Amino acid sequence: MIDSRQQPMTSYGDLISPYTNRVLCDSEVDTYNLYTIDFNRFTYTDEKEFMLDQRHRFVNNCFYEGFK
Asked: Which candidate, 60, 55, 56, places its Cα nearest to that of 19?
């Protein structure tokens, strides 16, 4: 099914871990935004959902970094 949803890009300093209060570094935000670019590029719902899952997985790994 065709899906026209679009996601906005994230600015530096906007992604903060709710577990450690660590602000994600610029390279992590850049990678997060690459997932967003791919999401916006895809056309079909299944592709978009897959990319959202991958982006969520990435950002959660970043959030838990240093939480041991």
From this structure: 60
CB count in 10 Å sphere of residue 27: 8
Cβ atoms of 57 and 30 within 8 Å: the answer is no
pLDDT one-digit tens code per residue, 3-16: 999 999 999 999 99
Give the pair of three-digit tokens for residue 26: 């610029």
Which of 26, 32, 42 is CA-nearest to residue 9? 32
3-state secondary structure (DSSP) of residue 41: helix
**Cβ distance 32 to 55 under 8 Å?**
yes
Distance CA 28, CA 36 (A): 13
